[in-house]
Amino acid sequence: ARWLPDGNLEYLGRIDHQVKIRGYRIELGEIETALLRCEGVKEAIVLAKKDKEGQTYLCAYFVADKKWTAVELRNQLGESLPFYMMPATFIQLEQMPLTSNGKIDRKSLPEPDQSLHTGTNYEGPRNQVEQQMVEIWQELLGVEPIGIQDNYFDLGGDSIKAIRLISRLKNLGLNIQIGDLYRYPTIGELSDRLGPQEQLQLEKNKSMKMLEIEALKQEVLKGAGWSKRSN
């Protein structure tokens, strides 16, 4: 809590239910309340989790009478929550695990498996450009498989990882900005946005890379052959 200038005391919530992510202080109870407003949702718990790189993200667990997808929940919650309070992962349960006292056992909640909650059917890459983009997304997000219609943010992507993603794509010769990822959050949409020249440049880069690898192999083989003859 905190004192206001007018002398009143403002209640900010329990400290153990507050987290700070990317500079924003977040009250987990506010997200849970927003989830409970969604149709059929009876119980909701939001926890802060750490990914493989130690970055904090939000994971929402809920019990509902109807089947929800991450896409549907994002659209619904987006009407009342700012972007920094949006859970990266949603997990729908049949029921919440309980302690012997009848309270929700937070420690027994399952670990997130983000690849199961994107809400889209898998669609593979249509060309080499999309194949390279898929490989980069899978490496940075730690999720497999990723289809070209999977939403970057539904897969656990955030603004920090977006900077690294854009840097990797630019190294391939693609002129993609951070704003493009927010407007076109799937590989399919980003690929369709690329002009013919960028598509061609990426194909050339891949061909040059293959030639460099082949040339290196030949050098290694020549060196091995020379060494063998000299002995």
TrEMBL record:
Its cofactor is pantetheine 4'-phosphate. Gene3D superfamilies: 3.30.300.30, ACP-like (1.10.1200.10). Transmembrane segments: none annotated. Residues 124-198 form the Carrier domain. GO terms for molecular function: phosphopantetheine binding. This is AMP-binding enzyme C-terminal domain-containing protein. It comes from the Bacteria. Keywords: Antibiotic biosynthesis, Phosphopantetheine, Phosphoprotein. Residues 102-124 are annotated as: Disordered. GO terms for biological process: amino acid activation for nonribosomal peptide biosynthetic process; antibiotic biosynthetic process; secondary metabolite biosynthetic process. GO terms for cellular component: cytoplasm. Belongs to the ATP-dependent AMP-binding enzyme family.
